[in-house]
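Bug: token stream looks shifted between consecutive jobs. Job 1:
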Amino acid sequence: MLEVALTGCRYSGKTSVSKLFKKIGTPVFDADTILKFILNFRTYVDEPIKSNVGSFVYKNGFLDPNAFVTDSLFDRTIDVVEFELFQAWETFKLKHKDKPYIIFESSILFERGWNKKFDKVISVFAPKEERVHRAKVDTGMRVDYIWSLFDKEMPELQKNSNSHYIIHSYQSGPSILNQINQIDTKLIDMYIENSKKSKRTSKEISLTKEEQDQVFSSLFNNNLRFLQ
């Protein structure tokens, strides 16, 4: 089974792409949602977070997004729960071990260096101007404020250059479903080829009972000669 990561900047269309992957039968692990659940409902992480970051990041018993004014505060918080997140990922992998590939969807994949854990990385790309427009329509926030938020992200082109596949998700772009189908075909072909290589390797290193007896007999005779 191939382990594939899916990422993208805010409002790039990452969630829509993951839904389409699910629609064609690919299991998708939503790491962002799992992280939010762990942070807000696994009460045993509260004290480690308060110790590692500070109690000021909590408001009315829940983490306050406005408290994370620096990347360092956010990173130190994720440090506390990263192990549990990937424990959940391991459970997800076991559940879908018969699939040719599964997807780990995360908006902070590159920022956390998690891309190194995966066989392939897919980045969903949309120009910043279009992403700002989507955010404006969705949230009603001021455009200048949205720009300031997006300017703090890792640049889209940097994510693209470190990805194996790029899905173009914008109005004048190619069909998203066609792009997904093409990637799906490549990943399945890769899985099949890897399986063939694995079987060939296993065959090469495995010995029949007769061959094992011959090897044992040869070693035994050599040892006898050495003793004599």
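Job 2, same session, no restart:
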Amino acid sequence: MEENPNSRLAIIKAACIIGIPILLLFAYNYSNSNFNIQFKKAFPMENGQLVALKKRNANPMTNPNALKRKKRASGLSSAEAIKRSLEVTDKTAPEIKPIYATDKLDTTGERVLLIGDSEAGGLRYPLNDYCAKNGHRFVASLEWNSSTILNYGYSNKVETLIEEYQPTFVIFVVGLNELYATDLTAREKAAQKFRDKLGEIPFLWVGPANFDEDNGINDVFKKVAGEDRFFMSKELVLPRGPDKRHPSMKGYKLWMTSIANFIQTNPIYPFKFDPPDKTNIPMKGKVMSANAAKDRGY
């Protein structure tokens, strides 16, 4: 049987259409010739992978718009710490040595109230160990998932908790859900409303353990709280949990050690927060949770 010339020509065309792009991609990957520079514009690659494929496998919890923003950091150390904290594991996490207070004579036990967003829920357990060690009573904790300073500033939950549990020391942890917030004037107003609710009660305002650089929310909180009563957490290198946003359990313990060290070395807090001898002590205080998606509080 005589072969059809048109059929042979169609096969050659198909082979060219499929084969030439494959050859070009292969040549681009393994050649240093000049034509690669022009080809890169159409098919950007990095470390032998198409950029588009890498983006598709990127961390879904990272805000893509944040990559376009100019990073607002207090310094290079902060940005580097955040980057490292996303890579460090429980095994590679740097140890944070606890500080023992030798010049604090106030042995009066405090009534400690912990409130905040989901990161407060993770700090609850190591905080309980510290309270038990130092004779403080951990009266209650509220983990308000997905909450921001707007929820705490405009709801009446804070007043209700203060009235019911009569704390003598409040630890407030917030900011994880507003790293990308740009309405900083409105956030500062809400932060001031929250601060006013505390009145004369001693407090420590703990900033978020950033998983990315923020747009200035930490600076807002520091301004409202005051430098002596604000703990800047974003510069800590902490191992992360599976979602890469929250610390792992070891990360929370390291974070709590850093917070305790801040209290120990801060003269405005006369009481001790020495490191515990035992961990995972049963919690006696009231444990509460809420979800701002269903209960925004105002």
